[in-house]
Amino acid sequence: MNALDARVTKTREKLTAALIDLMNEAPLEKISVQKLTTRAHVTRGTFYLHYQDKNDFIQQLMSRTLDEWLESARVRANLVATDPVKWQMTASGEIERFSLIRALQFVAERRDLFLLLIRNEHFFQFRKQLSERLTLGVKQFYQQLQSEIGELTVPIDLQAAFLTSAFRGITSHWLEVNTMYAPHFVDEAFQSLTHRELTQLIVADWFSAD
Fold first, then answer.
1. At what angle are helices 3-22 and 33-40 packed, to 10 degrees?
2. pTM of the model
3. Are residues 173 and 77 in the same domain?
């Protein structure tokens, strides 16, 4: 990273921290560019070098955070020909997967930002885009494995909706309880709850078939 990139990153971090701080005091519509730059100790001129207005700053923040988050969780794997399907992590694998542990570690390092993006009503677009990207990832994953696993009992769109909602719900709760569980524990719990036989999801019987 050169000196210019470092300054841009520092400015972005200061503005993000200022936004988080200000939103503990007032709703988004009450926060002006002037208030944002004053709290961040950044000049308005510097702000407008990078953003058209407050909305542009918010949109870039959401887009960049989502891109970096999903990229941090992306891993590659080779399929091992066993039953049930197993995975062998490799540097040059052919199947792309989503590492829940890496995703949670990324969130834990930016807890205040994700509390804002995932739980605050003003950032519904972030949650919508997250669901869309995760759903796409699940469907692409299935397309790569379709020849191995054959026809699905439960349609892929329902599976994708279930897994996406489960991930969002667990992440939101994890943030709410101050990330009290270690990422690897949450990963194991998620894998158990979403296991194909659902042997651990006894409470699913609450949803009666009658």
1. 110
2. 0.84
3. yes
